[in-house]
Amino acid sequence: xxxxxxxxxxxxxxxxxxxxxxxxxxxxxxxxxxxxxxxxxxxxxxxxxxxxxxxxxxxxxxxxxxxxxxxxxxxxxxxxxxxxxxxxxxxxxxxxxxxxxxxxxxxxxxxxxxxxxxxxxxxxxxxxxxxxxxxxxxxxxxxxxxxxxxxxxxxxxxxxxxxxxxxxxxxxxxxxxxxxxxxxxxxxxxxxxxxxxxxxxxxxxxxxxxxxxxxxxxxxxxxxxxxxxxxxxxxxxxxxxxxxxxxxxxxxxxxxxxxxxxxxxxxxxxxxxxxxxxxxxxxxxxxxxxxxxxxxxxxxxxxxxxxxxxxxxxxxxxxxxxxxxxxxxx
Length: 330
Ligand code: SF4
Ligand code: SF4
Hints:
Strand order of the largest sheet: 3-2-6-7-8-9-1-10
Bound molecules: iron/sulfur cluster
Radius of gyration: 21 Å
Order of helices and strands: EHEEEEEHHHEEEHEHHHEEHHH
Low-confidence stretches: none
Shape: globular
Structural class: alpha+beta
Strand content: 15-25%
Largest sheet: 8 strands, mixed
């Protein structure tokens, strides 16, 4: 039998988690937009399948800024102290299915040649509840990358709206069972998703065409004419994962931190010699498209894009990756 939960029960569940000291992240309205954030006292969770939060839930696993270790000079020695990975339980609730689907893609990156215990610890301690979509907007293209508005990948449980105040709860993992155990009731009603976005291109064809794309810089220079190199598309992308590690402080005392970086920044590949192998924005756009639709798939067998459209919505110039992919398809 389908299991359901009412909005009131869901909000009560969130309250009880917060009271127990569990961190809970959901979308919250800020002006006319919504952002995923950890809930603070007085915040109203925005559990609405028609809302597209600006940011991705990746930051609850791969924060924008994270301390790896601290160092302090003591006489002729240097004391190095590892930062402890995040181990408290947390819940991310209301992730879009295309956002949650990015997590298995990130797992490969942070558990491949190096086991990133900071990322992995957050993953192990986080329960992800996705929310099936009500309707696509102009940025969505999940169906073009073989996903759907109710994709289960990366989620421990999924909420599917039955009406404004009731959700069907589908549980996929033990973490999902623990979160919703005893909180749902049986019903003969089932939830639903809205219409899926039309397929915009054939991803296999894009991959094929990208085989020779490195040798066509003019195409990407043309595509990047309006690109400001601001990096917003990469920061809101659930699958972009570039970071830089820098020392902060002084030679006597400081810390090593891991900060988000972006392949769309001119300085990203700038050498100390002054040479920059990606010297214009077209080459940076080419890198982003090739990484997601050619390099990563060659290594891991799947695309590094979930068609969420965050990069399209988040670009001040209405670019993002989709218009470039549509041009390639033409
Ligand atoms: S595509 Fe848009 S968001 Fe991305 S770097 Fe260029 S201007 Fe910024
Ligand atoms: S490239 Fe754009 S559409 Fe693809 S996952 Fe990133 S933000 Fe979403």
